[in-house]
Amino acid sequence: MARKRAPLSTCHADRNVAAALPTSVVNAMRRDFGVPVTAFISAAAYGPGNMYLEGVVFADRAGRFDDGDTIRTSIILNSEAVEGFLVVQTLSSIYVVADWLGGTFSEASISNH
Asked: How many domains are contained in the chain?
């Protein structure tokens, strides 16, 4: 006798399963950026006015976010290209953008901060 299963829409995802690290994040984590990195952001995109970043966070040293959480940073104070990655300083953190939503890093990705 076949077991009847609930439709997928009624099933809840297991929040205890850690998100797999994207290759771009693993590559960024292997680098020395010369500053204490708070976390790495994947699938990053600037918010309106290039004031902040949105993306998927990994390896948050402050323990505020789990791997795979979507975040919005505080206001960007400064950004700099380092070894092919963008290092972003906000009010209270330093993030490394590992990859961009829909594209790759280029010098044009640097906002004027």
From this structure: 1
